[in-house]
Amino acid sequence: MSSRPKVEALGYKSGPISETKGPYATTNAAGSAYAPGSLLTVEHLSVADVAEILASATRLERMAAAERARVLVDRTVALLFYESSTRTRTSFELAAKSLGVTTTLVSDKSSSIEKGESLKDTGLTLRALGAEAIILRHPASGAPFLLARVTGLPVLNAGDGMHQHPSQALLDLRTMLLRLGLGADATIDAKTLAGVNVVIAGDIRHSRVARSNAMLLPRLGARVVLCGPPELLPEEALGLNAYLDANASGSPAIEIERDFDVALRSATVVMMLRIQKERLEGTALDLAEYVERYQLHGARLVALAPRALVMHPGPIIRGLEITGEVADGPQSAIEEQVAQGLAVRRAVLVRALGERA
Ligand code: CP
To answer: Which of 45, 128, 234, 269 has a CA between 20 and 30 Å from the CA of residue 220?
Structure first.
């Protein structure tokens, strides 16, 4: 458990650990009042935790399928989704099934949530039906903290509002290690990503993926450059640096560069983000101008970052933040990110439920 200061940049507060007093909640060796194995925010992960999760992902991946299917046999997990999802929901479900877990899906669209049942009562109902852990996606930042508190179960945050998407950051990290040639067995420490410049471009303001990656990657030595117009990237984003230790040179690990072409010239990795049109109401963003200045298209990539790894958490909007030729091109790791979701989510499920002896 980190003792780092809480991040309040970008208009959100991270989950207050000390307020947790759920009926089943425990105080574990790391001092958390949430059930051991919960994955609520990357803030709760030490570098050693990250190393352990990635090593577990690799070990499970190398296991024969029949052996893997016994790792969590007869365990039960609920997927509770209040927002649409393709990648996260499917990969969590397939990861669980591959470990022998019985899964059940509850969606806000086809459940008693439509009748007004609260998150607390839905969680307690799932617990009463035998769920041993809950995977939650919710539009409200902090919802997984509440669910963990009231159920006392391990909760895996599958994306909460504009706050966190920790398993996405872990799968992004594993994708980088593999595609940058560091390998699945790379030593994970404060220097693993030394010399790696990660440009995160687009709608940073609304992106839980950007926030989780910006709070994780510099702790492994990466430099993170946030890139976008002020409407989508407020200066307050630099407040994320308060969470990170100063690096050896004393310069901040997270920087802002408004000019995408300048940012691209130094990029080892360029992580594009979807413009979240559903959250743009009230902003003065000119989409045509945005495309002109920030779209990652073939000519821009070839001219400025011909060796950079292209990533995107999805869903991608072809022709807006990225063109089809780049998304489908040789520098793209977008499909590999999806595949790594399976490996990483197996590991966080085993961490949540505890492997059979
Ligand atoms: N990356 C991601 O969270 O995608 P989904 O919304 O499809 O789960």
So the answer is: 234
Q: Which domains does the chain have, with CATH numbers?
A: 20-164+340-353 (3.40.50.1370), 166-338 (3.40.50.1370)
CA of 236 to the centre of ligand 1 (A): 25
Of the ranges 18-32, 242-256, 272-286, the best mean pLDDT one: 272-286
- Which residue(s) pair with 81 in the sheet? 107, 137
Instruction: State the pLDDT at residue 31.
Output: 53
Portion of the chain with pLDDT greater than 70, in percent: 88
Diameter of the chain measured on Cα atoms: 58
SS3 sequence of 148-185:
HHHHCCCEEEEEECCCECHHHHHHHHHHHHHHCCCCCC
- List C-alpha distances in Å: 102 to 46, 336, 353: 30, 26, 12
Ligand 1: centre distance to CA 21 (Å): 31
Q: Is the peptide bond before 139 cis (omega within 30 degrees of 0)?
A: no
Phi and psi, residue 251, nearest 5°: -85, 150
Please tell me if the CB atom of residue 315 comes closer than 6 angstroms to any atom of ligand 1.
Answer: yes
Taking each helix axis from N to C end, the angle separating 334-353 and 47-62, rounded to the nearest 10 degrees, works out to 100
Nearest residue by C-alpha to atom 6 in ligand 1:
85
Which of 80, 84, 85, 105 maximizes ligand 1 atoms within 8 Å of its Cβ, making it the mutation to test the pocket?
85
Q: Is the CB of 118 under 6 A from ligand 1?
A: no
DSSP reduced 3-state for 198: strand
Instruction: Report the distance separating Cα 58 and Cα 303, nearest Å.
Output: 36
- Could you tell me the pTM of the whole model? 0.91
Residue keyed to tokens 């909640």: 25
* 103 CA to centre of ligand 1 in angstroms: 19
pLDDT in tens, 106-128: 999 999 999 999 999 999 999 99
How far apart are the C-alpha atoms of 73 and 81, rounded to whole Å?
23
